């Protein structure tokens, strides 16, 4: 802002100086023209006086020629002199005529010059008036510009005072900032010292940390190995259970086939006996019917017994699952899918990170394919089923634990 004002002030001052120079030049031109006019008038007056002197000299020469002619007329002895005098007289007349003509031309030129001088004087007065008005306007403009420059100077002075105050405030703020920077530098040095001490402490404890990391990695590897071993043990246990289940299923189906075969044979036999007894009498009819009902009871009692055992296992499974923590082990209940026709069942489980425990073997008793009596068949089937169910319950509890 100050620079702009200074530039405008310089520009205005240069304009004013240029105007003053133009005015001075105009005044100098006026003076030169006036002096030239005076000199020209003086030259004209000098020429006029000289021409008058020439004309006067010619008139005197004519008078002298006349006197000489009269003298020569009295003496007729010199004819050549007479001719010379006449020629001189003629030449003087012609010169006088030329001088008179020059005087007339000079007069006419003098009148034109006077006319031009009058016009020049009039134009000079008009030009002086216009120049005076222009100079007056220029002076008024210069006065206005000077007044404006004064105002600008006052504003600049006020602005300089304001800038001086701001500069003083800035110097105070700078001193405060320097003090703050020095305090921050001291705090930074203290912090660097503390950091160096901490770094030295960390360097001392780095070996301990590395040792702990190695121990942790070793423990992690051992844990991974144990986990893999437990997973492998779970897989082996599951495969063994599946093998035992398939073996039990096979023996159970074999026993069911034998029982079914005996039942069919007994029904056929009882049917023939029933037909024979219808002929002889109804003495043994009641016994045959009781035996048939007993066979039906044996056939369907095994399925009901399997259902009861499955319900009991499900109840025990729910109670034990509520007692076991879910973070330590993930157990799924045994699912028993049973069919009344083939009496087959399947079970599956999944367990993670458990201690390996012992498993009971399934004692499977081999029954002979041929039964001699109905009571022996009933006894063997019921004993095998009860023993299998007890073994299954014991195995389930051992797996749960």
Q: How does CATH name the architecture of the largest domain?
A: Orthogonal Bundle
Radius of gyration over C-alpha positions, nearest whole angstrom: 79 Å
| Number of domain modules | 2
Please trace the helix and strand order, writing H or E for each element. Answer: HHHH
Beta-strand content bin: under 5%
Mean pLDDT: 68
- Can you count the helices? 4
Percentage of residues in helical conformation = over 70%
Major sheet: size, sense and barrel closure?
none
Uncertain residue segments:
300-307, 312-317, 319-375
Q: Which key terms come to mind for this protein?
A:
single chain; 401 residues; mainly alpha; Helix Hairpins; 2 domains; 4 helices; 85% helix; rod-shaped; Photosystem I subunit O; coiled coil; BLT-like
Architecture overview:
With 401 residues, the protein is mainly alpha-helical. The protein has two domains: 2-174, Orthogonal Bundle (Helix Hairpins), CATH 1.10.287; 233-400, no CATH class. 85% of the residues lie in helices and 0% in strands. Helix 2 runs antiparallel to helix 3 (285-323), helix 2 runs antiparallel to helix 4 (374-400) and helix 3 runs parallel beside helix 4. It is rod-shaped, with a radius of gyration of 79 Å. The two termini are 94 Å apart. The model is unreliable at 300-307, 312-317 and 319-375 (pLDDT under 50). Keywords: Coiled coil. Residues 174-279 form a coiled coil. InterPro entries: BLT-like. This is Photosystem I subunit O.
Write the layout of secondary structure elements.
Layout: H1 2-74, H2 79-280, H3 285-323, H4 374-400
Helix pairs in contact: 1-2, 2-3, 2-4, 3-4
Protein name: Photosystem I subunit O
InterPro entries: BLT-like
Keywords: Coiled coil
């Amino acid at each position: 802002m100050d620079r702009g004002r200074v530039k405008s002030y310089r520009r205005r001052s240069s304009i004013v100086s240029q105007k003053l120079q133009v005015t001075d030049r105009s005044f100098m031109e006026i003076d030169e023209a006036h002096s030239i006019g005076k000199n020209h008038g003086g030259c004209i007056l000098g020429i006029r006086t000289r021409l008058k002197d020439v004309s006067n000299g010619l008139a005197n020469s004519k008078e002298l020629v006349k006197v000489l002619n009269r003298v020569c007329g009295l003496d007729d002895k010199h004819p050549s002199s007479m001719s010379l005098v006449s020629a001189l007289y003629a030449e003087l007349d012609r010169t006088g005529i030329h001088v008179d003509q020059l005087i007339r031309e000079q007069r006419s030129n003098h009148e034109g010059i006077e006319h031009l001088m009058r016009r020049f004087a009039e134009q000079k007065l008009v030009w002086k008036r216009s120049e005076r008005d222009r100079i007056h306007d220029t002076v008024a403009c210069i006065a206005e510009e000077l007044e404006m420059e004064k105002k600008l100077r006052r504003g600049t002075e006020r602005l300089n005072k304001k800038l001086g105050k701001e500069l003083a405030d800035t110097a105070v703020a700078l001193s405060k900032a320097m003090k703050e920077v020095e305090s921050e530098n001291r705090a930074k040095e203290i912090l660097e010292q503390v950091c160096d001490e901490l770094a030295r402490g960390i360097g001392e404890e780095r070996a301990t940390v590395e040792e702990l990391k190695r121990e942790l990695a070793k423990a992690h590897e051992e844990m991974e190995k144990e986990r893999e071993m437990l997973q492998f043990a779970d897989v082996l246990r599951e495969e063994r259970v599946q093998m035992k289940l398939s073996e039990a299923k096979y023996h159970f189906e074999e026993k069911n086939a034998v029982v079914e075969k005996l039942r069919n044979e007994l029904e056929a036999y009882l049917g023939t006996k029933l037909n024979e007894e219808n002929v002889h009498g109804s003495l043994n009819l009641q016994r045959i019917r009781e035996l048939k009902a007993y066979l039906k009871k044996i056939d369907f009692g095994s399925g009901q017994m399997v259902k009861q055992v499955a319900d009991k296992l499900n109840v025990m499974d729910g109670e034990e699952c509520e007692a076991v923590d879910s973070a330590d082990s993930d157990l799924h209940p045994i699912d028993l899918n049973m069919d009344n026709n083939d009496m087959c069942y399947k079970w599956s489980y999944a367990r993670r990170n458990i201690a390996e425990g012992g498993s009971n073997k399934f004692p499977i008793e081999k029954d002979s394919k041929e039964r001699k009596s109905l009571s022996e068949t009933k006894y063997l089937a019921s004993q095998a089923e009860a023993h299998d169910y007890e073994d299954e319950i014991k195995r389930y509890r051992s797996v749960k634990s």
